[in-house]
Amino acid sequence: MEPWYSPHWLSPAQWQQFHVVYPLALSLIPAIPVLFLIRYYLNRNAQQRLNISTGQLYARTPTGRAQTRGSWLSLLRYLLPLSVFIGSSFLLIALSRPQIVRTQREELSEGIDIMLAIDVSESMDETDLPPNRLAAARRVAQLFVNGRKNDRIGLVVFAGEAFSLCPLTTDYGLVTQYLNDLNSQMIRTSGTAIGDALARCINRMRERAPLLTDTTQTGNKRSKLIILLSDGDNTAGNLDPVTAAKLAKAFDIKLYTIAVGRLVTSASQATTVDEGILKTIATIGNGSFFRATDIRRLQSVFAQINQLEKSPIRVRVYEDVQDFYRIYLYWGIAFLLLALLWKNTIFGNVLED
Questions:
Q1: At residue 346, does pLDDT exceed 70?
Q2: Into which CATH architecture does domain 111-311 fall?
Q3: CATH 3.40.50.410 domain position(s) in the chain
Q4: Confidence at residue 294, expressed as pLDDT on a 0 to 100 scale
C-alpha cells in the first residue's frame, strides 16, 4: 500500500473506489470558506495592522513603470488561510470515513438426488417422435442433466430386465456419455419391467456415497426423486410397479413418470402407449404424470420438472471492509501544523493573537 503522504490518495481514480459512510461530512466542506467570509466581515473594522515602510520593495522597470517586489510576499499571506482550509477539509474527509468494500458472494446448495429410469425396449424405436422415441428422450435427458447444479444424478435402463447403468454422481459428463450410448439392443429380454426399474432406482437412492450423507448440516433430508420414461405397460419383471411405488413413498422418494409417444401412430400399425400404470405410480409417489407426444412437449416436461425440483440455495455474502480515514487524518494534521508554522512567521498577523 502507498504511504499516507503519497499523491496517489488524492487522485480521482482512487476516490472512485471509495465508499463514503458519512457523506454529510463532505457536504460541510463548502461551509469552511463561508466561515472565513463571515469572520472577515465581522472583524474587518477591528483588525490590528502594523504599518511598515515598503519603499525599498518598489523598483522601476526600464519602461518607467513601478514594479513592486513585495507582490509575491503579499500573495504568500494567503498561505495561512489556505492551509487552514485544506487541513479542515481533510479532517472532514476523514470524518466521512472513506473505505473500500470488497463483496464476495458464495452460493451453497446441498443439491438433490435424481435417478433417471429410461425404457430401452424395442418399442422405443418407433418414429412418432423423430428420429425415434429413444433418441428424442436421450437428447432431452442430456439437456436436463447439463442444466442441473450440485445434484447427484444416476441412470437405470430397463426393458424385460432392469440394470443400473450409472450410480449417483455429480460427474455430469459421465452421465451424458452413458445417455449417448443408449440403444434398444442393450437388453435382449423383451418386455417392460417398470417395477424392477423402480426397485433399482430405490436401491441406488438408499446407498450413501462416500463423504456424503443423506442429511445436510441443518438437519434437513436430502431431496430424492425418480424420473421414469416409458411407452408401455408393465409386462415383465419380478416386482409389481404399485408395490415399488409404495416402497419409494416409504423412503420419501418422489416419482415423476413420462409417457413417451402418441396413442396411435397410424391406422395400419396401432402402436399404443398405456399410461394407466404410469399415472398410478406417479400418484402414489407424490409426483406427477406427463405425456410427451412430440419433442417440444418432451422438452417442456423436463423444463417443468426442472422448475418443480430446485435444490435450496443459501447465499452467503462476505464483505471485506478496509478503512482509509487515517490517511486523510494525517493529511489534515499536516496542513494544520503548516498553518501554525505560517502563523509564527511574517505571514501571520501577530497583533490579532
A1: no
A2: 3-Layer(aba) Sandwich (3.40)
A3: 111-311
A4: 84
